[in-house]
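in:
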């Protein structure tokens, strides 16, 4: 994992021009820079060795990239069929700054799914405990599609972006600079 990505999250340098600023400010309020809560949050979102092993074998085995193609809010197949750009769910440029912003957005979008995932999980367990296995299975399947797989998709996206940010630029790329002075990604 590239330490710059974690440092950016810890410093709170989220994207500010994509329309989701209110959400990033909420994160800043809940986990202020320099606090233990912020450090734990960053550790949670950082790709683990299990996630990065063998170039994301875990995610490929679970079918996450295939699911990612059909996610209504940003899947490639959906975007092609509808012609929608869906900018918040897309890497917006070739600079390192754009990649870091996309990484940050993937963290925030996963965090949006987490409370709903936990609530539906609790409800499903409660239904199973009172003997309503039919409802428990329904809610577990709904949770799988609506929350768990999108969360796994965001985690896989972060794994890919972190790997991209960890690469060293080639000599001809060092000479090129993006308009904002940020080096282009390899």
């Amino acid at each position: 994992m590239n330490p710059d990505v974690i440092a950016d999250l810890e410093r709170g340098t989220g994207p500010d021009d994509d329309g989701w600023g209110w959400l990033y400010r909420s994160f800043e309020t809940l986990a202020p820079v320099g606090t233990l809560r912020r450090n734990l949050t960053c550790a949670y979102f950082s790709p683990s060795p299990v996630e990065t092993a063998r170039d994301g074998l875990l995610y490929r085995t679970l079918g996450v990239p295939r699911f990612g193609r059909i996610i209504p809010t940003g899947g490639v197949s959906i975007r092609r069929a509808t012609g929608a750009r869906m900018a918040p769910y897309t890497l917006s440029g070739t600079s390192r700054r754009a990649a870091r912003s996309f990484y940050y957005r993937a963290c925030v979008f996963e965090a949006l799914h987490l409370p709903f995932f936990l609530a539906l999980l609790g409800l499903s367990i409660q239904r199973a405990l009172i003997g309503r296995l039919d409802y428990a299975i329904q809610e577990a399947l709904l949770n799988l599609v609506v929350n768990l797989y999108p969360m796994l998709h965001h985690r896989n996206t972060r794994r890919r972006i972190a790997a991209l940010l960890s690469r060293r630029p080639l000599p001809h790329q060092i000479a090129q600079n993006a308009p904002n002075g940020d080096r282009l990604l390899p």
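note: The chain has a mean pLDDT of 78.
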